[in-house]
């Protein structure tokens, strides 16, 4: 069963709901340094329902982030969430991102679908890197940041006994929901200005 809605209207609704969810997550992460599980679950469910019930006017629907929008269907939405989860899980394993950040990006994947999730990850990581550099410049703690970066990378080496936890050993924990929101906005602006996705699938 599909919602009786034009693809353009569905896209505006979907982008608006995603923007609202990300704004609430960024606000919570900025104030409390946590993203509530209830908000993540709500974001995931909205993304799934949007793609399951939205208009599918084309044989190969191109999703929310397209000049030719169309719902992806239930299966592609679930796959998008799984792809987004898998892409960000290594950063959680390195303790560079919190579980809430990874879960939030997986929920975004339910909106975007699998191919767009990979491209979104590139934009989010770029936004996170730029925010970290800006913070490093403002705080003038370049040495600490470099030492922590080397410690995080060093613990991946075989036989390493060191343990680094970005949640407790950094001078400042960036609310990564902000980076996710900025990355999603940058990805949308890039595509809607007529550019092709960075990676094609």
From TrEMBL:
Start and end residues of each Prepilin type IV endopeptidase peptidase domain: 17-133
Cross-referenced InterPro entries: Prepilin_IV_endopep_pep, Prepilin_peptidase/N-MTase
> Which spans are transmembrane here?
35-53, 65-91, 111-134, 174-192
An example of a Gene Ontology cellular component annotation for this protein is: plasma membrane
Q: Might you name a Gene Ontology BP term for this protein? A: signal peptide processing
Q: GO molecular-function annotation terms?
A: aspartic-type endopeptidase activity
**Keyword annotations of the record:** Membrane, Transmembrane, Transmembrane helix
One Pfam family from the record: Peptidase_A24
Going by the entry's taxonomy, the superkingdom of the source organism is recorded as: Bacteria
The UniProt similarity line reads: Belongs to the peptidase A24 family.
Q: What is this protein called?
A: Peptidase A24A prepilin type IV
UniProt source species: Hydrogenophaga taeniospiralis CCUG 15921
């Amino acid at each position: 069963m599909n919602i009786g809605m034009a693809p353009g209207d569905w896209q505006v609704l979907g982008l608006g709901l995603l923007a609202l969810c990300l704004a609430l997550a960024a606000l919570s992460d900025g104030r409390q340094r946590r993203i509530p599980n209830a908000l993540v679950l709500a974001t995931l469910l909205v993304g799934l329902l949007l793609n399951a019930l939205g208009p599918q006017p084309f044989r190969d629907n191109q999703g929310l982030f397209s000049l030719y929008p169309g719902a992806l269907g239930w299966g592609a939405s679930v796959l998008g969430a799984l792809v987004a989860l898998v892409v960000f899980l290594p950063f959680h394993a390195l303790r560079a991102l919190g579980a809430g950040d990874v879960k939030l990006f997986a929920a975004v994947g339910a909106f975007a679908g699998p191919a767009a999730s990979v491209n979104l990850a590139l934009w989010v990581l770029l936004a996170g890197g730029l925010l970290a550099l800006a913070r490093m410049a403002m705080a003038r703690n370049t040495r600490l940041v470099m030492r922590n970066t080397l410690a995080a990378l060093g613990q991946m080496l075989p036989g390493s006994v060191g343990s680094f936890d970005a949640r407790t050993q950094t001078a400042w924990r960036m609310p990564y929901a902000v980076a996710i929101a900025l990355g999603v906005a940058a990805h949308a602006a890039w595509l809607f200005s007529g550019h092709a996705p960075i990676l094609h699938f």
